[in-house]
Fold this sequence. Notes:
CATH architecture: 3-Layer(aba) Sandwich
Strand order of the largest sheet: 6-9-10-3-11-12
Number of helices: 9
Keywords: ATP-binding, Nucleotide-binding
Order of helices and strands: EEEHEEHEEHHEHEHEHEEHH
Largest sheet: 6 strands, mixed
InterPro entries: ABC_transporter-like_ATP-bd, ABC_transporter-like_CS, FeS-cluster_ATPase_SufC, P-loop_NTPase
Number of domains: 1
Radius of gyration: 18 Å
CATH topology: Rossmann fold
Mean pLDDT: 93
GO molecular function: ATP binding; ATP hydrolysis activity
CATH superfamily: P-loop containing nucleotide triphosphate hydrolases
Number of strands: 12
Pfam family, one: ABC_tran
Protein name: Fe-S cluster assembly ATPase SufC
Bound molecules: adenosine-5'-diphosphate, magnesium ion
CATH class: Alpha Beta
Strand content: 25-35%
Distance between the termini: 37 Å
Amino acid sequence: MAELIIKDLHVSVNDIEILKGIDLTVRSNERHALMGPNGNGKSTLLQAIMGNPKYIVTKGSITFDGQDVLSMEVDERSKVGLFLGMQYPSEISGVTNSDFLRSAINARREKPISLFKFIKEMDKAIKQLDMKPDLAHRFLNDGFSGGEKKRNEIVQMMMLKPQIAMLDEIDSGLDVDALRIVSDAINECQKENGMGLLIVSHYARFYDYLKPTHAHILVDGKIVLSSDASLVEKVDTMGYEWIEQELNITL
Ligand code: ADP
Ligand code: MG
Ligand code: MG
């Protein structure tokens, strides 16, 4: 069983403290919904866990199965089984999708994956996400539509089979059918691998598909409320303002 433990995490960007003491544990088979008004640090938390060097950890700890994550490079974090599906995936010209994925997969294995197995798995993922068959041979995210980029993040997740996957607004920009396709793929991958999920989204519809076991609200760099999926419904119907009154804080 995998266990990602975050303790008293403080993170600064450009010398401004964005995260002000986050405590969160995500284990295999748990599905955590992370919500909160815009600009309060959700993406910052995910970027800091994955090791984006712009996000400076000034205090606290992150461990994965007892190993110190903060001392790992980004590729080591990927190797131990962490994955981030990004809000704004970057375009990389000159590297094809399949080259990128094969080297990412091989970096985590003793022996390289056979070409046959790789192609089979990639075809399966591409079909499952209802993407164009030439996807494998196109440069990574180059000229992809917003929706295609998001689906491509899920193709990567399915191929890399992480132990803990973090998805940052992966549902934004998806139409109703695409949302269902992406959700089904995430669910299938989750069940197959017992993956733990940390899901950032604003939309109850996405969470309806993914059935969170836990839900958290992040305000001003702190998790101010944690509960079960009922919290998702409450935010969907009432927004965030009630939190202000209930906790006597200012959003
Ligand atoms: P959320 O994902 O909750 O909308 P973010 O984590 O993206 O919020 O942003 C939290 C705060 O940190 C914002 O004030 C944002 O401007 C700042 N911030 C985040 N990332 C960067 C960055 N790469 N450069 C400058 N400021 C950033
Ligand atoms: Mg703020
Ligand atoms: Mg964000």
